[in-house]
Amino acid sequence: MVKIRLARTGSKNLPSYRIVATETRSKRDNKNLAVLGFYDPKTKPETIKIDRALLDSWCKKGAQLTPAVKKLISRNEKTS
Length: 80
Known about the structure:
Elements: E1 2-11, E2 14-23, E3 34-40, E4 47-50, H1 52-60, E5 64-65, H2 67-79
């Protein structure tokens, strides 16, 4: 099963995240099938960039969104 979830990047105490499509059995920072966007919580305001076309295509293929990604998508739609 494919999930769309966050993969942590950045250094110690400066996290940033990629929004990725990956197999559920793989680890958080393991190989990804596709990078769909990024999220940087340390900037003011938070930076959220998502490729909606790519996200929709993965969802049509059956990928499941994690709760954290759902929250980011809804937050991104409110600001847009």
